[in-house]
Amino acid sequence: MFFRPDDSAERRPTVILTNGSDGQNVDMWTYGVSAAVERGWNALVYDGPGQGQLLFVDRVVFTPRWETVVTRLVDWLAARSDVDTNRIALTGLSMGGELAPRAAAYENRIAALVAMPGVLRPWLGFPAEIREILTRDKEETNNIWNREVVPELSAAEAATLRKRFEPFSVPAMLAARQGKMFSTPRPSSSSHSTSRTSWSASRRPHWSWTTRASSSIPGSRARCSTS
Q: How distant is the alpha carbon of residue 3 from its chain centre?
């Protein structure tokens, strides 16, 4: 969605507003659109991979290559007669605080960047218990998740994990819609370990890491339209 102060053809500075992992486009109005328009700026709000309609309707999950998204947005803005291409700013809210800096590092037409908060190592945003389960062996990682963690999750913990992992793989998203935890098939009872570690004690928690966002995801499929 493209917002501008008036219908004139004046070339204006423009800000691109990037949401986080579970925000809605309407959030961007209070985050910065209204302030931009009041100050004579244009503002562009969009759904990128893993966000809004692209996730829930088109099933396009997150890609770390956010520069492929923003570059197409800048191309679109540069083709407009009412955008000052020397004054295009990019912002990122929440998870967008990691996505926007990555995009700005590659897209040299971005004149200013605001990340709230600035995130340099997203991996550290996960609880230590989650980070501990990722081993070099996918099968081992999945076994820990399926055998030791999922059976011990409370309803609230399971709901939180379903929500947080939803944007990162299509199987996880579809499982979350059904109120399930995405996991690999449970092992037979004969091979199931008799010892379990509770989530609260957390030796190592887990879920299936076998499905990841494909590097071929069309990150450029950001939606924007004139108003």
A: 23
Active site residue 227: no
| Residue 208 φ/ψ, nearest 5 degrees | -75, 125
Distance (Å, rounded) from C-alpha 179 to C-alpha 190? 27
The whole-angstrom separation of Cα 93 and Cα 9 is 29
pLDDT digits (tens, 9 = 90+) for 138-189: 888 888 888 888 888 888 888 888 888 888 889 888 888 888 877 655 544 4
Catalytic residue selected from 34, 81, 94, 190: 94
Average pLDDT over residues 16-40: 90
Q: Where do the structural domains in the chain lie, given as residue ranges?
A: 2-122, 135-191
3-class SS of residue 192:
coil
Distance CA 46, CA 1 (A): 6
Distance CA 19, CA 147 (A): 35
- Work out the angle between the directed axes of helices 155-165 and 170-177 (0-180°, nearest 10): 140
What is the DSSP annotation of 141-161? Answer: HHHHIIIIIGGG--HHHHHHH
C-alpha–C-alpha distance, residues 193 and 213, integer Å? 30
- For residues 12 and 39, what is the distance between their CA atoms, to the nearest angstrom? 10
Domain covering 2-122 in this structure, CATH number: 3.40.50.1820
The residue type of 64 is P
Peptide bond into 218 cis (omega under 30): no
Q: Give tens-digit pLDDT for 65-87.
A: 999 999 999 999 999 999 999 99
